[in-house]
Amino acid sequence: MSADSAGKLVSSAFEVPLNSSMFTWTVYISILVVLAGTILMHRNSNADMIDSLEREVNLPIPVQPGPPFPLVTEYCDIVCGFGRGSAELGIPTANVPIGQLPRQMNDLDLGVYFGFAHIKPAEHREPSVETRQDGRTVVYNYGQYLSEVNGDLDVLPMVLSVGKNPFYGNDFKTMELHVLHDFKNDFYGAKVKFNILGHIRPELNYTTKEALIKDINIDIKTAQSVLVTSPYQTFKRQL
């Protein structure tokens, strides 16, 4: 047998007819491998993000604060606002004067943020009566009824609204803290120091009060789920 004939014989021995069933399974397995790799890459790319409640407007929240956060204030005054948070929405808020806050906070995009807050009584102040922007009067007790036993003086989680409240047609910016705690008394005139550790979502407008309340409650649950994690808990020490 010639060398050429032997070569052809060896070559023909390795020729396998194309089997359509085998080809189909090969393609199927290849697709699965590609899909698995894509999913793994997606999971790795989001490994530094915290899962938040399903909502299209939610911003990605990192596993620990990233620039420009954390931002932290000195102690500033708690002043009365419109009284809508508690009376209309069932979600009481503590308003703070923007002029007493660091400039970086005033530069923040309008939206909802989260962090921790520490409230304490204002010293050497006697109760007084002030007139709210809606014409109603409120008593400034300067935090004299804040209770250590009730946990009022602890460093507490909070959600912060930085915005113009388009649902109510405001044309100026306010900063309102909703401290996630069951206070037994008002504390107008008390002092609050707080930090901002992250951004939940941009400010939105709403067609109904119910939709606004629903979104605020999602904001609260989102903040709670993030602030209990160890990397965020460490920032309580700032206050």
Your description of this structure?
With 239 residues, the protein is an alpha+beta fold. The protein folds into two domains: 43 residues; 175 residues, Elongation Factor Tu (Ef-tu), domain 3 (Beta Barrel), CATH 2.40.30.30. It contains six helices and eleven strands. The strands form three sheets. Strands 3, 4, 5, 6, 9, 10 and 11 form a seven-stranded antiparallel beta sheet that branches. The chain has a two-stranded antiparallel sheet with strand order 1-2. A two-stranded antiparallel sheet has the order 7-8. A hairpin with a 5-residue loop joins strand 7 and strand 8. It is an enzyme of class 2 (transferase). Keywords: ATP-binding, Flavoprotein, FMN, Membrane, Nucleotide-binding, Transferase, Transmembrane, Transmembrane helix. GO terms for molecular function: ATP binding; riboflavin kinase activity.
Characteristics:
239 residues; seven-stranded antiparallel sheet; alpha+beta; two-stranded antiparallel ribbon; membrane; 2 domains; Elongation Factor Tu (Ef-tu), domain 3; 11 strands; transferase; disordered N terminus; riboflavin kinase activity; globular
Number of strands: 11
CATH architecture of the largest domain: Beta Barrel
Beta-strand percent range: 15-25%
Amount of helix: 25-40%
So, the CATH homologous superfamily of the largest domain? Riboflavin kinase-like
Shape: globular
Rounded to an integer in angstroms, the radius of gyration calculated over CA atoms is 29 Å
